[in-house]
Amino acid sequence: MYERYWKEMGEKTTLVISGWQSISYFSDLTNLCWFLEPSFADSVLRLHKLVGNAVTQDRHIVVGTGSTQLFQAALYALCPPNGSEPMSVVSAAPYYSSYPLMTDFLKSGLYKWGGDAHRFSKDNNNNNRRPYIEIVTSPNNPDGSTRRAVVNRIDGILVHDLAYYWPQYTPITSPADHDLMLFTVSKSTGHAGTRIGWALVKDKEVAKKMTKFIELNTIGVSKDSQLRAAKILQAVADSCDRGGVGSPEEGQATFFEYSHNLMAKRWNQLRAAVEKSQLFNLPEFPCGFCKFSAQSFQSQPAFAWLKCEGEMEDCESLLRRWRILSRGGKHFGDTPKYVRISMLPRDQIFHLFTHRLSTIQS
Amino acid sequence: MYERYWKEMGEKTTLVISGWQSISYFSDLTNLCWFLEPSFADSVLRLHKLVGNAVTQDRHIVVGTGSTQLFQAALYALCPPNGSEPMSVVSAAPYYSSYPLMTDFLKSGLYKWGGDAHRFSKDNNNNNRRPYIEIVTSPNNPDGSTRRAVVNRIDGILVHDLAYYWPQYTPITSPADHDLMLFTVSKSTGHAGTRIGWALVKDKEVAKKMTKFIELNTIGVSKDSQLRAAKILQAVADSCDRGGVGSPEEGQATFFEYSHNLMAKRWNQLRAAVEKSQLFNLPEFPCGFCKFSAQSFQSQPAFAWLKCEGEMEDCESLLRRWRILSRGGKHFGDTPKYVRISMLPRDQIFHLFTHRLSTIQS
């Protein structure tokens, strides 16, 4: 979806890197995160300040090979190294289907997937207080809802996955101000193949341990990709910085205007298709005032969390018969009546999808 | 050490990548390793064929965020998912100090560090046959020796770490022909900050499981870095391909001639310093015929495995007093009489190091 925007930007965001540049393992030995490229850190700080979606003051930036690696780094950093049993990692269902897989694939003795946070909260009353980490994904993947922590305990450890807290998807109501927040370029600018994410971390020791994880896991993070991500994030910031050096001309859209409008158009198109078919249901989102764009709108998430109405039990199979690929609700800790569908493919694919969906009859 | 060569190469290896390129997660959906950039795979195959250091026929290429990630991917792929106890991972001492750390940092239930392969082999006789993976590093890090498997069992699983099996470090006597071989650009061309390694894998299911590991760990590998590594490896191949399009002019050195000569010079310089001081000892290497360069020479490894002679017990502390940073033998499963020192720093640092070493008196 973002490809066209970046094509229209032309050579402004072209990365040029000579054969002899950035050869060493190290980026900045004075930084706690010694493999963090200073120009990438600068671009992160500037963009958060402009968009107003996260507090960056008194935070350490840890860069990762996508926020996927940072998720694992966070678990490693937050679990006691010598706990008597693995710490439970929970998230309210429906949750991102990769969380259980990433948590459990190495059968770590440090942490284990604990499932739905609502259920954990019920089982985990005062007579049975197990330590836990709760992942709060807001806006949520897969259903786009705005979320807060579910397990109501003062000693709980929270990780906020804010991959989708950008103004093309949801109103920016206030700067997020949590202990550990995860972001990624895949979702903010569309550069998934670059594999760059970042964490904003309040506690110095946690940031150090996350850095240690990445050191042991991949000895740092691609410099080439950090330099590229820096260029892309600066271009996004330039486009927002009205009156600045790289700001768009009169009548030209900023990056977030462009992508916001495209998402709005796609959600309208999807809702029209769903209405036509009458077999499905989509979540409704409350209207919120976005301080960044100074307008009110409803969330328009990167995924559609589609529900089959009536007696249809397996929505994924139904859609497959109509040649629509989706991911069934079970992967997300929910019933197979739901599926997740990406709202971000290329135009042609998205049009084909909504067309096919609109023609499905019971 | 390599920086100067790449500077002299000028703009030939400059990577130019537009803002809209390589945005997607996917590189090649027809390939088992779906995030492998085809141009990177091509460059790997071409270079191995030219250098003759590894058999690539009937092998799957899996790309990783450095060979560090591929090491972990290999452990994940080779251990049974439902074993009753973690599989032992062993390597003959002295071994690369990161192996135990990478194996144990997540307290995996799949595998655990089993220490020195010689000791494991003794304890693990026919009455006590535990399954194991042996890491064979050849040339070895830290001591530069040429190695074969130590544990003598037909049911052992071997991983060959061949990061240093390149003609600047050691004679290429024959193409390595093992089930699972690891390589990295950090050591072959010096581009450590690019974080790109590759595995040559005979068994399709193992290659698939390694791909799965990288999918769960980082959802693929930076495309930008793969494209850059492809360009660098092609330039190295061009320089070797006498008479080819990019081959050096008469009298100009190929990449491997340049780096071989520099390593030879540095080893001479180090041996002279060691002789002058009379407090230390260095390993001697047998002479071998290199089929690639058609000449005989002794290994000139990327690390010096320096031993303090006499009563000196802690070589690392001794060197620190003379302002030389090194890594003590204990990290490598050996005595503190040894230290590992990098032979690859910038010229100035290397000169300073040999100068300081030569002046150390008992």
From TrEMBL, chains A, B:
GO terms for molecular function: carbon-sulfur lyase activity; transaminase activity. Pfam families: Alliinase_C. GO terms for biological process: amino acid metabolic process. Keywords: Pyridoxal phosphate. It comes from the Eukaryota. Gene3D superfamilies: Aspartate Aminotransferase, domain 1, Type I PLP-dependent aspartate aminotransferase-like (Major domain). PANTHER family: BIFUNCTIONAL ASPARTATE AMINOTRANSFERASE AND GLUTAMATE/ASPARTATE-PREPHENATE AMINOTRANSFERASE-RELATED (PTHR43795), TRYPTOPHAN AMINOTRANSFERASE-RELATED PROTEIN 2 (PTHR43795:SF22). This is Alliinase C-terminal domain-containing protein.
